[in-house]
Design a protein that fits this description.
Layout: H1 2-13, H2 83-91, E1 103-110, E2 115-122, E3 127-132, H3 138-145, E4 149-153, E5 158-165, H4 166-173, H5 176-189, E6 194-200, H6 202-217, E7 223-228, H7 236-246, E8 251-256, E9 277-280, E10 290-292, E11 319-320, E12 323-324
Parallel strand pairs: 3-6, 6-7, 7-8, 8-9
Antiparallel strand pairs: 1-2, 2-3, 4-5, 9-10, 11-12
Helix pairs in contact: 1-3, 3-4, 4-6, 6-7
Length: 331
């Protein structure tokens, strides 16, 4: 309760974090890359989009009651998803840094933003796994509350017309250079490996930014993105950029029943979800109770989780696939 109150206060004040210095990405030997020579300084930040900093009526207060955990949140006729897809959704929720037999590679941390990235290697699946931690600290809630949008300008992405959540982008920029360079090093020494990027909540938003950064740097490396309880991260142009660069078949945006965080930032101020939503629409979590939502220009399928009014940070946000978020995978 106290953490969410802090986040609400930060939304009201529009507190802003700074941005780091961008870098230059070298090629991977034997792997086509897209180095960006001379990416310009990104300080000061581009002007923020004029979004009111007053408390937003579309963002409700924390609610810990009002529904049963077994409530079916929509009368959907979904046939469910395959066991293989469902098992992957579960697998990548608990992937960092050592579960699932992964080899721990590196932890990247920035003290200003308290952004944490865990990089692991799965030598059985031949994957480099990049996992970003969700909100645990006051710095993280400052990040969450900085909801004005700014141009997507980062170490490896320069898209002035694409607008993203300033707090998320500033946090990602504090670790972007080191993260992508560690991935580069792993790919260089493990040819033929693919990349998986994953994260829960704030970590899901950061994972989407990381996925674009890695994919635009090395477009020929296969990459998949898994997010869980991810809040809206940018505008419709951001959703389109991610859908195009990563590819909707490679994006798995999981939402647990009536989790209020994916819709806590309202569409009325310009935000849109990206594809592809996998909605566990009723308990218990199972393949037959998980729906692949309609493929649309963006991820706002009105028959899936977008049909449920946000109740803020609520119990379903902290448990995915019967696994509590407090399970020490990425904490």
């Amino acid at each position: 309760m106290r953490a969410f109150s802090l986040a609400t206060a930060l939304i009201s004040t529009g507190f802003v974090l700074g941005t780091p210095t961008p870098g230059v990405l070298p090629d991977i030997p034997g792997v086509p890359g897209v180095p960006l020579p001379g990416v310009p300084e990104i300080l000061p930040s581009p002007p923020a989009v004029a979004i009111p900093n007053a408390p937003l009526p579309g963002i409700p207060a924390l609610s810990l009651s009002g529904r049963s955990d077994t409530t079916e949140v929509n009368n959907t006729s979904a046939e469910g998803v395959s066991t293989a897809v469902y098992n992957d959704l579960v697998f990548y929720f608990k992937c960092c840094p050592r579960p699932n037999g992964n080899v721990f590679v590196d932890r990247i941390f920035h003290p200003l933003s308290d952004t944490n990235v865990y990089i692991a290697r799965d030598d059985i699946k031949k994957e480099i796994v990049v996992a970003l931690r969700g909100s645990l600290s006051p710095q993280n809630f400052i990040t969450d509350g900085t909801i004005v949008m700014r141009s997507f300008v980062s170490s490896f992405v320069v898209e002035p017309a694409v607008l993203v959540h300033k707090g998320f982008l500033d946090a990602w920029n504090t670790v972007a250079l080191n993260t992508v360079n560690v991935v580069r090093s792993q790919l260089a020494s493990h040819l033929g490996y693919t990349v998986v990027v994953t994260g829960h909540s704030l970590g899901g938003a950061l994972a989407s930014l990381a996925a674009i950064s890695i994919k635009m740097s090395y477009p020929y490396i296969p990459l998949r993105l898994y997010t869980y309880g991810q809040p809206r991260t940018g505008d419709v142009s951001y959703a389109s950029l991610l859908n195009r660069q990563v590819g909707s078949p490679n994006i798995y945006r999981s939402v647990h029943t009536w989790d209020g965080v994916p819709t806590i930032i309202p569409t009325g101020i310009g935000y849109r979800h990206h594809l592809t939503e996998y909605w566990t629409y009723r308990e218990p979590s199972a393949p037959e109770n998980t729906r692949l939502c309609d493929v649309a220009p963006n991820g706002e399928d009105a028959t899936c989780s977008a049909s449920i009014p946000s109740e803020g940070i609520n119990p379903p946000h902290f448990v995915y696939f019967n696994i509590p978020y407090s399970t020490p995978f990425c904490v």
